[in-house]
Amino acid sequence: MTVRRTSGPAGRRALVALVCLAALSACGTRVEGTAIEAGAGGGAVRLSPQTLAQLQPDPAKAAAAAATGIAAPVTQQAGAAPTTTVKTASEKAVTTGAVVAPAASHAAAALAAATGKAGPAVAAPAADAACHADAAPVPIGQIGTFSGVAGPITISARNMLGAWAKDINTRGGLACHLVEVYSEDDGGDPARAASEVQQMVASHHVVAFVASEVPLSIGGFRPALEAAKVPEIGGLAGTSDFFESRWIFPESAALDDQAIGLFRQGADLGHRRVGLLYCVEAPVCTEVDKRARAGTVKAAGAELVYDAPVSVAQPDYTAQCLNARDAKVDLFTLALDGASVGRVIRSCQAIGYRPLLGTGGGLLTPAQATDPTLRAFGAVSVSAEAPWILNDTPGLREYHQALARWLPNQVADGTSVMAWASAKLLEAAVTHLPVAARTGQVTAAMLVTALGGVHDNSLGGLTGPLTFSPGEQHAVSNGCVFYELLGPSGWTAPHGSKPVCVTH
Fold first, then answer.
1. How far, in Å, CA of 286 to CA of 302, rounded?
2. What is d(CA 96, CA 46) in angstroms, rounded to the nearest whole number?
3. Residue 404 near residue 152 (C-beta atoms within 8 A)
4. How many CB atoms lie within 10 A of CB 13?
5. CA distance 168 to 210
6. Helix (H) or strand (E) holding 47
7. How, if at all, do strands 36-40 and 43-47 pair?
8. C-alpha 210, offset from chain centre
9. Which residues contact 422 (CB under 8 A, 6 or more apart)?
10. I need a labelling partner for 104 at 20 to 30 A (CA). Which of 219, 233, 238, 373 fits?
11. Is 449 left (phi over 0), alpha (psi -120 to 50) or beta?
12. Angle ∠(41,397,266) on CA atoms, nearest 5
């Protein structure tokens, strides 16, 4: 099945992941999104100070990379990044906080500018043979709720997009153009998200937004995006908006399909009596319950026997565990953040009640997923992208290689693979740009047209097959998701990297 542009409601990522992320945004403290420029192969990546520290390279390795034309892997370091100026023959000086080598065709010039010494000649990639040396960079935007309690869940999407920019620039850029990424924190505020979209388009002339994380701020993000006529490629929203706008190109299955997949995985394991705890912190949380009552549980071959609203700030969930036990719930679905999931299982364990859990793998940080109590309960999870724990498809191998090269201290997770898949969808679209784009300006309108040329493309096994057709107004789900299972030994993938198409 494919994702194409047509009418019809839907959303993105696992149901509980979408909703809980929005709730977390509402509950978290706001951190000012002061932007700092960080180099990405000669371009600018606007990142927070925390993220900049994580992307900071080892200076010795960066110098060696400049000499070889290969960008050095980054390591996480504490503290502020040093400021260094790198200048190439064809670029203006760019003040950067994280120095990486430009594309190979500019490496010798970068070394000479940085050290005052001539380096060995470096051959440009074959794909750059017809590239113009002064091709303008392609500015890419990203909006996300990267602060507050949501930060631990979302920050890897920001890191991964920055790493992708470095990676693509070492490969010659997009259609001969280096990439610049501007990433801003919206604090979960729709008005702030709208303002940031407007500013990026007006000031930085971004031609696409990629891997945005806007579950709470979609109400401001979407209208601003549509007014600017700039596409969003991939990303995460807690509503159906990602499948209702002609300017949004999801890299995933729809919200309802992911919900069905989550409940069906539990039912396939013999757990058909579903209970649901959903947060009260954000209106979108109630959508979980509405959709479950409206048929996503039934469509999965299961039965909703208990549901209740709760708060992510609640210190104890004993009453809810007692009610679920009395209702004979054997698949306890938790639309909560990872920390709250931990409190739920301890409340249930205290009364001797241990159901199988249903949650979003992206909601649990890698550290939370090591909790032995959580592993003893077991949890089913569904994702829109191939399981981050696997390495058996070309797309997954490339993801893990990039992670190891650019973010060696960041553990693979569902959020970072989402960001990588979103960026790879942009790459797939760029292959459909006209030849003239290699020397001329790449525009938002060009990218929208090029996305219409993506057909039956799984991005090397990162997603279910994606298709977008020119002129269609909305995306429709391919109905394909991926299963994960958390058990005593950690995460596993019951169906491997093969998508499960639940509604077609």
1. 20
2. 10
3. no
4. 32
5. 14
6. strand 43-47
7. antiparallel
8. 9
9. 161, 210, 211, 233, 234, 235, 251
10. 233
11. alpha
12. 125
For residue 57, the cross-strand partners are 74
Residue 238: predicted pLDDT: 63
Residue 132 confidence (pLDDT) = 62
Which amino acid belongs to residue 494?
Answer: P
Which pTM value belongs to this model?
0.78
Cα separations in angstroms, 56 against 79, 146, 468: 10, 18, 37
Would you say 167 and 406 are in contact if contact means Cβ atoms under 8 Å apart?
yes
Mean pLDDT over 165-169 rounds to 95
Angle of CA points 193, 159, 248, to nearest 5°: 45
Pairing of strands 331-335, 356-358: parallel
Amino acid at 4: R
Interatomic CA distance for residues 385 and 420, integer angstroms: 10
Strand (E) positions, 175-239? 179-185, 208-210, 232-233
Residue 149 neighbours by CB under 8 Å, 6+ apart: 24, 25, 27, 28, 29, 312, 337
Rounded CA gap, 232 and 244, in Å? 12
Give the C-alpha distances (Å, rounded to integers) separating 278 from 151, 254, 435: 20, 20, 50
- Residue 131: which pLDDT band, with cuts at 50, 70 and 90? low
Contact criterion met (CB below 8 Å) for 253 and 384: yes
Say yes or no to pLDDT of 163 above 60.
yes
pLDDT of res. 93? 25
In the three-class reduction of DSSP (H, G, I as helix; E, B as strand; rest coil), residue 197 is classed as: helix
Residues pairing with 466 in the sheet = 457
Q: How far is CA 235 from CA 231, 354, 414, 455, in A?
A: 11, 34, 12, 19
Torsions phi, psi for 334 (to 5 deg):
-115, 105
Which amino acid does the sequence have at 373?
T
- Element containing residue 492 per DSSP (H, E): strand 490-492
In this prediction, residue 472 has a pLDDT band, given cuts at 50, 70 and 90, of confident
pLDDT digits (tens, 9 = 90+) for 181-202: 999 999 989 999 999 999 999 9
In sequence order, what are the beta bridge partners of 183?
142
| Through-space distance between the first and last CA atoms of the chain, rounded to whole angstroms | 7
DSSP class per residue in 383-429: ESB--TT---SHHHHHHHHHHHHH-TTSPP-HHHHHHHHHHHHHHHH
Structure tokens at 285: 């949380």
